[in-house]
């Protein structure tokens, strides 16, 4: 889509509106952490293992230090159920996206977000623990769908020259949502005994705004033309996105992609996994999502407050918010760099830098008791670790899947990659505390090894997709699969590509 005006007000509105779903995802990820001890007290009262509210002031410290086992169980379920909901719904991304279109799909799933927000916001009106767990489950189900639909829509409407920058906005919205939840979750704002239901209930607020704006956004022209065959509507949407211009070049590109897609049956998840035609792309897509989650970034957020406390920071929660600010700033930097430096380059820099930072943090933790100043080494390691993550490994896996696959297999690929991301997120969340207890100060060596392997894999197997059409990207994979043939053979490869719906 190189013709016509590249960036317009309509395109900006559409990307902003879609990214509200990602903001909501980030908010839901971060909101549960700040008010943990407050909510655990309410769980205790709801379960009958703590005295009523008026009698708890004298025992608050005991409650915080040693929560009742049933409280711990229900709290863990409140945190974990979010990922479980996402794991399940991520498989439905392709179905929902194709059912009524990308815009109506996002509009439909907002019902889940609003319902989840209401369940948590009204938690005090019922059994607190059941209301929060139910709300988190519904919100997780929504976020699993949203984390697939948003990159899919943005990837399809973005001009090639800006596809990376606009795709990175998904991650920027996520980290912004996390930061907002950290700030308003402070105890003197909403993270207190009276206001915490409102804090959790606000998880559904972006869905309300998004529902008002989505009807103003054009549908994906690629969906309209390739999936529904509505050429005239696709032309109208192209002009809404890019102003008055000759749409023939864009339509011709989509027509070619549609012709290739029609030569094979609809690509299901099972077909995608089995087909050798898509195997190279699929391995790259899944490995990038695995390297994102198994990099240890969530473990860093989990562990940062304890490291800041050991460094003598009187309010470690503010230092953790500082990490959130760094998170957001470096995602913005990635937005500016991704279409200049390229996806592969930024991913390599990010993974390699994180690997070094994990080693630095390990050294800081090992020698913490011997040299008190080593805590500052660990703190520096944390800030740099987060910075390198947001430069490449954080944002790029979310949108590169849409670049690696053409219209036919794209929904199935995004669903599979999303499930992979949610599942690995859940595994890290459930196992990190056990790894920490087992390895103690050496826990980040595990992540350093994973990051080193991920860096090597990216260097050897991940192609650069910057500025390339879907056909060029897929053709490169096919040439790799056949051992990089000479030019005449490459032409034959393109014919094979056309016969297998790759574009």
Protein architecture, described:
- The chain contains 24 helices and no strands.
- The protein starts with 8 loop residues before the first helix and ends in a 5-residue tail after the last helix.
- The chain is globular and about 70 Å long.
- It has 503 residues and is mainly alpha-helical.
How much strand? Answer: under 5%
DSSP helical segment count: 24
Low-confidence stretches: 1-5, 55-64, 485-503
Q: Categorize the overall geometry.
A: globular
Radius of gyration: 24 Å
Order of helices and strands: HHHHHHHHHHHHHHHHHHHHHHHH
Coarse structural class? mainly alpha
**Mean pLDDT, as a whole number?**
83
Largest sheet: none
Terminal Cα span: 14 Å
How many strands appear in the DSSP assignment?
Answer: 0
